[in-house]
Amino acid sequence: MDASNHQIRDGQYGFSNLIGKYCGRTFPPEITSKERYLWLHFHSDESIEYQGFTAVYEFIDRNRDAPSTDLNCTIEKDGFEGFINSTDVPQEIRETVIRNKIPLDCMWRIQVQDKWKIQVTFLNFKLSKPNDCEVNFLDIFPEQTVMPMRVKNFCGSAGEGITSDSNILHMRFYAEQIAINSTFSILFTAFRDRGSGGCLEGEYDCEDATCIDGDLRCNGRSNCKFLWDEEGCKTGTDGQKEHMIIIITVFGLILGGMVITFLVNCIRKIMHDQKIIRVSL
């Protein structure tokens, strides 16, 4: 088997439909993409014996009579934390999917700062057709979106947390027409390995050899893997409880004062009436 080969796929990612895989002296035919992207990948080992390859490309008008399958659905995310939601998909893309009767195929690209990594936590995951992995699924890729490097495939009824090995992560959501109403909500958190130097000023130590941004402490969301960033935090519910206790206490004191005043006045009136009765007798 020849160790050198050239893959060509009809799309912009390494999981797009394979047009052909060419190796040895086989000369590829003329290739035309269905839409505006072609994905090319050349692989070779250290024993390069030939002259390589040269390819020429040109842009041509697509067939206007056929409905377009190019959704251009790529969503960029960054920061120390954020959310990946099924509702991120623009309404016009959903309308195009329904109108042209094509699958929904969207990619989220998460990139955090250099030398940091990404932790993914599922908050909600509800596919319209769970366990039907051809109809709807969520794939997670590292920097490269090639199938051999796919980190995880979710097509059941639950999603599990994962962590990246670099500062870039890709998430692909695919759904056929009957499953485009699938819903999911995912929290991503940027973290870095603590190392021997410990966490820096402005960072929070998750006590699992990782550091997160200090502003994520007590934000109502669990950004540390073992939830330490929310340990001992005063939640909004706690504040409401304290507020209610204060109100009830004040109300009780006022009511108690009114009752005591009423009783004192009653006793005084009774004593006054008794004096009047004795004088009359």
UniProtKB/TrEMBL annotation:
<dbReference type="Pfam" id="PF00431">
    <property type="entry name" value="CUB"/>
</dbReference>
<keyword id="KW-1015">Disulfide bond</keyword>
<feature type="disulfide bond">
    <location>
        <begin position="199"/>
        <end position="211"/>
    </location>
</feature>
<feature type="transmembrane region" description="Helical">
    <location>
        <begin position="244"/>
        <end position="267"/>
    </location>
</feature>
<keyword id="KW-0472">Membrane</keyword>
<dbReference type="InterPro" id="IPR000859">
    <property type="entry name" value="CUB_dom"/>
</dbReference>
<dbReference type="InterPro" id="IPR023415">
    <property type="entry name" value="LDLR_class-A_CS"/>
</dbReference>
<protein>
    <recommendedName>
        <fullName>CUB domain-containing protein</fullName>
    </recommendedName>
</protein>
<feature type="disulfide bond">
    <location>
        <begin position="206"/>
        <end position="224"/>
    </location>
</feature>
<keyword id="KW-0677">Repeat</keyword>
<keyword id="KW-1133">Transmembrane helix</keyword>
<keyword id="KW-0812">Transmembrane</keyword>
<dbReference type="InterPro" id="IPR035914">
    <property type="entry name" value="Sperma_CUB_dom_sf"/>
</dbReference>
<feature type="disulfide bond">
    <location>
        <begin position="218"/>
        <end position="233"/>
    </location>
</feature>
<feature type="domain" description="CUB">
    <location>
        <begin position="73"/>
        <end position="191"/>
    </location>
</feature>
<dbReference type="InterPro" id="IPR036055">
    <property type="entry name" value="LDL_receptor-like_sf"/>
</dbReference>
<feature type="domain" description="CUB">
    <location>
        <begin position="1"/>
        <end position="60"/>
    </location>
</feature>
<dbReference type="InterPro" id="IPR002172">
    <property type="entry name" value="LDrepeatLR_classA_rpt"/>
</dbReference>
